[in-house]
Amino acid sequence: MVIIRAEIQTDVDSVRVVNDAAFPTEVEGKLVDALRKSGKDVISLVAESEGRVVGHILFSPLSVEIGSKKGLGLAPVAVLPSFQSKGIGSNLIKAGLEAAKDRGYDFVVLLGEPEYYQRFGFEKASSFGLGNEYGVDEPFMALALRPGGLEGISGIVKYESEFGTFRA
Predict the structure, then answer these.
(1) Where are the domains of the chain?
(2) Mean pLDDT score across all residues of the chain
(3) What is the CATH number assigned to the segment(s) 2-165?
(4) Which of 67, 79, 128, 159 has its CA 20 to 30 A from that of 106?
(5) What is the dihedral of CA 26, 31, 34, 39, to 10 degrees?
(6) Which runs of E-coded beta strand occur in 24-134?
């Protein structure tokens, strides 16, 4: 059985192991550590199986050029390779989106595989007048967490400075 819960201090090393195992470089693990250290880990959840952390998701603040809605960036989401394709990543995403909504956020953006994230309701962010610092279109996606959550905002979405520090 897998449970989704908030990350606690004793999870830090395990979260790093999950991120390092799930991605081909240590960029995501270093990014999570840096966001946590600077207090920008707004929502950080883990998936736990039999007392072992097997998955992790993090949401951090972001800003948009025009508009005052509250948004978060989803990145990264990671699951240990031996636990992938079991719905753990999906459960982390659903729980994270619900937590963001409960905390009063209006929208979430991410860079990811459109085919995967569309199942959660994410759409191409440029459809809402949103661009990004990385110059990509199709994989930059947005999701309104409440009706009107993406209305009245536009321009370039800015992630926290840590994202620029740890680009692959």
Answers:
(1) 2-165
(2) 95
(3) 3.40.630.30
(4) 79
(5) -150
(6) 43-49, 52-66, 71-79, 107-111, 123-124, 130-132
